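Q: Start with the shorter request: fold the first protein.
A: Done. Sequence, then structure:
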Amino acid sequence: MKIATFNVNGIKTRLPHLLEWLRREQPDVACLQELKSLDEGFPEAAIREAGYGAIWKGQRSWNGVAILARGADPVEVRRELPGDPGDDHSRYLEAAVDGIVVACLYLPNGNPQPGPKFDYKLAWFERLLRHAATLVDCGHPVVMAGDYNVVPTDFDIYNPKSWRKDALLQPETRACYERLLAQGWTDSLRHLHPEEAVYTFWDYFRQHWEHNSGLRIDHLLLNPQLAPALKAAGVDRWVRGLEKASDHAPTWIDLDLKKLPKAARARRST
């Protein structure tokens, strides 16, 4: 099973890119972020014609998340991150696909910092930590995929010096990510490529794409029930090279579900 995450940076603008990527790479599950569209503007017909069922939660002009499943309809579990009923940002979706719990998230950027946006980022991260703790040992195989807006270490960015004041690199941000991994989650891309400079995001300034001046901020975390199935992980860089592309490239993992622990395999069938 191939599971991917892709911050599309506007699904209306990038729909041709999304459809080409789905046709060429055929992920079994795709988690999308930054739809930047209301629910009624989601291109359900085009995505179904491409062979995918979908659930989504949109928002005008920014945010928005979706989960696509090839040849199936994701079974929705929840449409929001628990812990703050007043939070109206569309940043979290959770569904079951083929017996796997898939969480799609778009963690707040947090800039400028310090300030209310950074405070919101950390508060949202605390909510994620509490909810993730219920998922990591739930007995089901779980993947939490999305744009985390976290550069975990200096190795995950082309040049940390010019980004030191950015919310993505702040010690508080990185500490939250470390606490998340400490619950028992596996950072799939880094786990399989511990010594490789792998990037998933290149901003639009100063020819960062052309110079491969990137950041790794899109992550797929696996709980202990799913981690044994991990066999490959990578980034579909060719998508970032398309004309008028998103500033993110799709990031993916390949799973051998036959290697799931016996109890997790049994859970998938219930």
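Q: Next, the second protein, separately.
A: Sequence, then structure:
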Amino acid sequence: MKNLKNIFTVLLITLVAFNCSDDDDATMVVTPTGTDFSGTYTQQDQMGRPAVNTVFVSSGSKDTFNTTIPTDQNAGFQSMFEANLTALSPAFANPGDANALGQDAAAFTGLLATDVLNVSLDGTTTFYDGTNVLTGRNLADDVITVELLLIFGGEDFSENPTLSNDNVSENDKPFLASFPYLASPW
């Protein structure tokens, strides 16, 4: 019996010793296997222009809008965008009212209803810099204020000043000068 007890003790110590290794100091080599694109993927959301989808798509139509390809969005949603814009913005309350781009409600919502981010391949890339409009987007671009100005600011950005600015003048942390460019987390 004493031998059996000794064998059991040795077995237990061996088992514990092998299973309680200090593996957090070990270097683990992981071999990349490549990206696996197998499976079925479905589009759940899109946001080419921030806040546009949120503001102009009626709540019951969000899923439909988010899964509609951009080339079909204007035909399917421009009238909804226009109705929501004219109900929301005093700058488009009267026939013939336009924004600083010279667009009336129908033209402006036609632009917005196709929810894509245009990018200039041979010019300035910016959401708005005073001259160039919707030619892309830099991280530091004040996208929401630009959208508010185009929605509420009227022909010269002077209408509805309390509605035309989100009053956020910069990111809470500076963007990086090199990739990945985004500011580090708090």
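Q: Describe the second briefly.
A: Residues 52-156 form one domain. Residues 1-20 have pLDDT under 50 and may be disordered.
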